[in-house]
Amino acid sequence: MTTLNDYSPEVRAEVKQVREVVSNLHEQLIKWNLVVWTAGNVSQRLHSADLMVIKPSGVRYEYLTPASMVVCDLDGNLVDGQEAPSSDTASHAYIYRHCPDVYGVVHTHSTYATAWAATGQNIPCGLTMMGDEFGGPVPVGPFRLIGSEAIGEGVVETLKKYPKSPAVLMQNHGPFTIGKDAESAVKAAAMTEEVAHTMWAARQLGDIIEIPQEDIDKLNDRYQNVYGQH
Ligand code: 13P
């Protein structure tokens, strides 16, 4: 078995840094009320080697530390760690292998997003912030069992049809989000829950007014390229 000692000092230094980043970001899932007990997981891919750092499976958030994070290769094989990796490791690895710009993946069971997933419905694009963040509706992906790369395949397949969305609501399961790093993917998970909640409330009040695609494209372009500090 390949171990971390087979990698260069540069790679080992990045592993150390990413273990800290990934461990700390799990606190954000709790902070934003996106997970309960041991549900959900965060990973980040390394830039210096084809490796990723992911949460150990079934360990309570209070007990997660940088040292307890698990290092795997992009086929999901264990490279370093005391604990068994997340049950979604093979799916995170599949996403990294097929989406070269993605360096962060997050999964949650956040309540409103998962409710949309349980009904198999895309969240329609009825908010400017959805145009900004998702470039359209938040799409539903297929039902897939947990424990293999099947979820990752479903995420990648769905994103081909919705290339601007950083989130897929896996049917009957919950959101999987992506980003340029784990922090961006956590942000996408928080935004997914926010719009899922608002659009659920909107549905209770009446019919959704969907934003025309032409305006969604303008919103998305401004938010992605002009908004914020440059
Ligand atoms: P892990 O604790 O194995 O990451 O599982 C959590 C989960 O939500 C599986 O879908």
Provide the list of bound ligands, each named once: 1,3-dihydroxyacetonephosphate
In CATH, the architecture is 3-Layer(aba) Sandwich
| Euclidean distance between termini CA atoms | 45 Å
Which stretches are low in confidence, meaning pLDDT under 50 for 5 or more residues running? none
Question: Into which percent range does the helicity of residues fall?
Answer: 40-55%
Coarse structural class:
alpha+beta
CATH class: Alpha Beta
User: How many domains would you count in the coordinates?
Assistant: 1
- Strand line-up of the largest beta sheet: 4-3-2-1-5-8-7-6
Tell me what portion of residues adopts beta-strand conformation: 5-15%
Kindly report the CATH topology: L-fuculose-1-phosphate Aldolase
Number of helices: 7
Which radius of gyration do the C-alpha atoms yield? 17 Å
Secondary-structure element pattern, one letter each: HEEEEHEHHEHEEHH
Largest sheet: 8 strands, mixed
Q: What best-fitting shape do the alpha-carbon axes yield?
A: globular
What is the typical, i.e. mean, pLDDT? 98
Number of strands: 8
Q: CATH superfamily, called what?
A: Class II aldolase/adducin N-terminal domain
What report would you give on this structure?
The structure is a single chain. The chain is 42% helix and 14% strand. The protein is of the alpha+beta class and 230 residues long. The protein has one domain (4-225): Class II aldolase/adducin N-terminal domain (L-fuculose-1-phosphate Aldolase), CATH 3.40.225. A hairpin with a 4-residue loop joins strand 3 and strand 4 (78-80). Helix 2 (89-98) runs parallel beside helix 5 (150-161). The protein is globular and about 60 Å long. The mean pLDDT is 98. It binds 1,3-dihydroxyacetonephosphate. 1,3-dihydroxyacetonephosphate is lined by residues 38-41, 55, 57-58, 86-88, 107, 146. Residues 38-41, 55, 57-58, 86-88, 107, 146 line the site of 1,3-dihydroxyacetonephosphate.
